[in-house]
Design brief:
This protein has helices at 31-45, 141-152, 157-167, 178-188, 194-211, 235-240, 288-302, 315-324, 334-339, 341-345, 351-364, 368-381, 388-395, 417-427, 436-462, 473-481, 484-496, 548-552, 557-565, 602-621, 625-658, 693-699; strands spanning 9-10, 27-28, 49-56, 66-73, 100-106, 111-118, 120-121, 216-221, 227-233, 247-253, 263-269, 275-283, 308-311, 329-332, 500-508, 511-522, 525-536, 541-544. It is built from 22 helices and 18 strands. Helix 2 runs antiparallel to helix 3 (157-167), helix 3 (157-167) crosses helix 4 and helix 7 packs across helix 8. Strand 17 (525-536) and strand 18 form a beta hairpin. Among the domains are: 18-80 and 91-133, no CATH class; 137-189; 194-331 and 427-452, Nucleotidyltransferase, domain 5 (2-Layer Sandwich); 465-590, no CATH class. By secondary structure, the chain is an alpha+beta fold. The strands form four sheets. A seven-stranded mixed beta sheet has the order 8-9-12-11-10-13-14, with helices on both faces. The protein has a five-stranded antiparallel beta sheet with strand order 2-6-5-4-3, covered by helices on one side. Helix content is 40%, strand content 17%.
């Protein structure tokens, strides 16, 4: 049998330069330089090193001064493992490898000299596989910057890893694995401690306040100085409230952070008819007191209470609104109510017909009297008199049925679905294990996304107006004033005008009472609704009993039919609302939403800046091979000069840097006195934790 000594072989050194191979007599200025040299040699050859032993000067008792050190291959020695190879976490076993380098301190020359070198290994070495050893797996600065940016943008770690792999031609060319990407996110971009997570959120608020003094935040604590609620509003959101304060949607959502805290959003409609943010809040509980604190701080921030607010059927919200916003009209979200129809009434045999009739009565009743009559007939026809859910809805009909809100302006909002859309945006990036720091950074993303979309819409409207072929004079009038999205909404009413017919007219003093029949399709059959329009021929002012203009701010098809009947070319200016105008200068469009730049350290920011400058240079000279060769040569020359400079400076600065620890600025004041929130329980039945719970649910 061949002995271990005879099996040691010299690995292939053809890819190494002569000065990169350790030899006896080689000297180094310090012990770390010797360690670095042998580690680089091992990495290029294909094995891993370890410090076998270090001897210290025993004559110096006041300080430990090393005098020699032995650096070995990690597969040195021999040991038997009780764990099977298939289940062993570290499968690299010892093979009595004798490869090593022994260095000792030369006191006269004040340097470290190699005294013993063994280059032969008892195992094959692979330079291609060495990058997959966990000792050599390392994230480059470029990878760290990409991971940080992608994590902030909500891109999953596996997608980030694939993108980095595609840059270098495959994952085999990377010096790290997907697990390293996830570990970096967990250790550097997440807070494992609840109090540290809360302090990170507080530091974010302080930094945003420093960037823009108009940034508002308020933290409420209980008697034990424990977090109870938080509200924050960006400076741009505060400025936009001046123009969109007529109606607000408020809604909560759960399971978007590891603390289980419900978060709520204040959402309104901008001049393009799209959702705009007016503030966010985190609550510990859904009790009346929690909502009162949030509403009180929000009113303190914006200054003026909204005219109307839309919420779901939450009794705690209703109680808080009655106390804090007594003059604000509040209504229930009709979408939440109608969504429950299938669960509450799905067991009835004629559910399809029942649901269609209920939707028709709720959404298409021309008047409150008509709703009362048709609802009574609906209850009688389907024998629903004993249904307590419907009885409760009817008792509170003035809080959710659209016909009872036709006289107030609601900007087209009748549900909290705009808040739901904001929560859906969060849902793509946050989950039940997300921390508060990650949450507020995603808030930055939401603001930036909404700001960019509003800017794009403003740019489209500023390009000028192209008259539509076949458009009426009234259409061209609104096209000159309204934003593109709101003009399209008006065009829908113009198209619906073809379904309207003027049936009769009656002179009543200075005005004319006109009956307009509108045809609608219900259950596959045409249904006609009659609306009365009051028209003044002198002032050309009109009023329809459907109150669409009063509630939405858009002329209804019935008034447009009357204008067409009496050949009115332009409507009075009172029907062109500044709320939807593209010609109004709004202050918030000149305010940029705050963005936190303190998540990356100064080194990463400098690295990104240098990369950006290089990209700008490379894109100008990459088309020509000769120019690209000059650029590559300049980079190679700069790299060699920087390497020489580092080598010359390392010996003088090494002693001073060995005993210093890197520090990092927190970027704000950490409030140690306030304790982070505990995990809270939300409403409803808790989700099952059994492995088969989801499967049982699907089968059921």
């Amino acid at each position: 049998m061949m002995s271990w000594e005879l099996r040691h072989e010299l690995s292939d050194h053809s890819g190494l330069r002569e000065e990169e191979i350790p030899v006896i007599g080689m000297s180094f200025d310090s012990l770390p330089l010797a360690q670095e040299f042998y580690t680089n040699y091992a990495k290029k050859l294909g094995f891993v090193t370890k410090v076998r032993n270090t001897n210290f000067d025993k004559t110096r008792k006041d300080a430990k001064i090393p005098i020699n050190q032995s650096l070995h291959c990690t597969r040195e020695g021999y040991r038997e493992s009780r764990v099977k190879a298939a289940t062993r976490s570290n499968r690299i076993t010892a093979t009595r490898c004798k490869a090593r380098m022994y260095v000792m301190l030369d006191r006269e020359k004040e340097c470290w000299v190699v005294s013993i070198v063994e280059l032969k290994h008892s195992h094959p070495c692979s330079a291609e596989k060495v990058i997959h050893y966990h000792e050599y797996r390392e994230l480059t600065m470029h990878a760290k910057c990409v991971i940080t940016d992608n994590d902030e943008a909500g891109i999953r770690p596996n997608k980030t890893y694939l993108a980095l792999a595609n840059e270098v031609g495959g994952s085999s060319n990377l010096s790290f694995s997907e697990k390293d990407v996830r570990n970096y996110i967990a250790s550097n971009l997440r807070c494992s401690d609840d109090n540290a997570d809360f302090n990170g959120m507080m530091n974010y608020f302080v930094r945003m306040k420093e960037i823009n003094p108009n940034f508002f935040y308020a933290i409420d604590v209980d008697d034990a100085n424990k977090f109870r609620s938080a509200l924050w509003v960006d400076a741009r959101c505060r400025a936009s409230y001046e123009y969109y304060r007529d109606v607000v949607s408020f809604d909560t959502i759960y399971r978007r952070n590891r603390h289980g805290l419900p978060f709520a959003s204040f959402v309104s409609v901008n001049h393009h008819g799209k959702s705009t943010l007016l503030g966010y809040a985190l609550l510990v509980s859904e009790e009346i007191l929690s909502f009162e604190l949030v509403f009180t701080q929000w009113v303190r921030c914006v200054g003026i209470v909204p005219k109307g607010i839309i919420i779901d059927q939450c009794k705690a919200m209703t109680g808080a609104i009655r106390k804090v916003l007594p003059d604000t009209i509040h209504r229930w979200c009709i979408w939440h109510i109608m969504k429950k129809t299938q669960f509450k009434l799905g067991g009835y045999a004629r559910y399809g017909e029942l649901s269609a009739m209920m939707n028709h009565i709720v959404y298409n009743s021309p008047s409150s009297e008509s709703f009362e009559v048709h609802w009574a007939g609906f209850i009688k026809e389907f024998e629903l008199g004993q249904n307590r859910w419907l009885a409760n809805l009817y008792a509170n009909r003035r809080k959710w049925v659209p016909i009872f809100f036709k006289s107030e302006f609601w900007a087209g909002m009748r549900s909290t679905q705009r808040s739901e859309s904001m929560h859906a945006f969060y849902g793509g990036y946050l989950h039940c294990k997300s921390g508060l720091v990650q949450f507020v950074h995603e808030y930055d993303n939401v603001l930036g996304n909404k700001e960019q979309k509003e800017l794009e819409d403003d740019v489209v409207d500023s390009k000028g107006v192209i008259p539509c072929i076949g458009s009426t004079c009234i259409e061209r009038q609104f096209q000159q004033e309204y934003t593109s999205n709101m003009f399209r909404t008006l065009q829908l009413e113009v198209r619906k005008k073809t379904d309207c017919v003027v049936r009769s007219t009656e002179q009543k003093g200075d005005t004319i009472s006109i009956k307009v029949d509108e045809q609608k399709v219900f259950w596959g059959k045409p249904v006609y609704h009659t609306f009365i329009v009051e028209f003044d021929p002198l002032s050309r002012k009109s009023r329809c009993e459907c109150n669409k203009f009063e509630s939405v701010g858009i002329l209804c098809c019935h008034i447009l039919a009357v204008c067409s009947y009496y050949r009115v070319d332009t409507v009075p200016s009172c029907y062109v609302l500044p709320r939807w105008s593209k010609n109004v200068i709004r202050k918030h469009t000149y305010i940029k939403s705050s963005h936190d730049v303190a998540r990356s350290n100064e080194t990463h920011n400098l690295f990104k800046h240098l990369c950006s400058e290089f990209y700008n240079v490379a894109q100008d000279f990459v088309a020509c091979d000769e120019e690209a060769a000059i650029l590559r040569a300049a980079l190679s020359d700069a790299k060699s000069r920087l390497t020489d400079y580092r080598a010359s400076m390392r010996s003088t600065t090494l002693d001073g840097t060995q005993n210093t620890m890197p520090t990092q600025s927190t970027g704000g004041v950490i409030l140690h006195d306030i304790q982070g929130p505990s995990r809270v329980k939300t409403k409803g039945q808790p989700k099952g934790k059994r492995l088969g719970a989801e499967l049982d649910k699907l089968i059921k």
